[in-house]
Structure to design on (201 residues):
């Protein structure tokens, strides 16, 4: 398989799995609803992220526009970067990592750009596809998250600066397939291909 076809295949598979799961979650579950897949340590928990990673936000609709446009520009740069390196003799692992990052970023852009236009809200109801009243305008949608792995549950020790009555949960963040693709791609580069990245930038 050529490297160009490998890139297309990776991006297609990531987007297909990511968007299929998100559309299923969005069209069958309400915010806060969850399914326990493997006991209490692998849960499909529906939540929506209005901002960056871990729910961070930039402040209002202007910040949301800025974030969405920044993401689109970043994805455009990654696409250009892939087009540059795909014909070069770069390690296949590096190309796979960059393709994963591109696919993941694209998957989350689809949510923020279009989900607000084609769905109504998911609070106390299951969202309706192509509803009469959409929940947001273009680039103002929220990213659908659902993968939750609270593997360790307990309480903070008394010597920690955090109140011991506060629950200790690891891993607390809820994320999605696109986030996973970005994270895996970044770890592959950091662990195995830092030299290639420095050379090709």
């Amino acid at each position: 398989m050529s490297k160009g076809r490998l890139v297309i295949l990776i991006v297609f598979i990531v987007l297909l799995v990511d968007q299929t799961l998100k559309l299923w979650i969005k069209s069958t579950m309400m915010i806060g609803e969850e399914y326990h897949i493997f006991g209490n340590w692998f849960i499909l928990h529906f939540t929506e992220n209005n901002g960056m990673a871990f729910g961070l936000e930039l402040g209002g609709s202007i910040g949301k526009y800025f974030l969405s446009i920044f993401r689109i520009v970043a994805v455009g740069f990654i696409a250009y970067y892939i087009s540059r390196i795909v014909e070069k003799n770069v390690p296949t692992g590096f190309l796979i990592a960059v393709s994963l990052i591109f696919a993941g970023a694209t998957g989350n852009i689809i949510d923020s750009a279009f989900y607000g236009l084609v769905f109504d809200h998911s609070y106390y109801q299951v969202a309706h596809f192509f509803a009469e009243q959409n929940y947001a305008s273009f680039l103002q949608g929220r990213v659908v998250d659902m993968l939750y792995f609270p593997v360790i549950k307990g309480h903070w020790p008394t010597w920690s600066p955090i109140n011991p009555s506060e629950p200790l949960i690891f891993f607390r963040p809820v994320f999605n397939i696109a986030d996973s693709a970005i994270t895996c791609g970044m770890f592959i580069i950091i662990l195995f291909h830092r030299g290639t990245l420095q050379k090709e930038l």
About this structure: Residues 21 and 37 are 14 Å apart (CA to CA). The first strand starts at residue 34 and ends at 38. The first helix runs from residue 3 to 28.
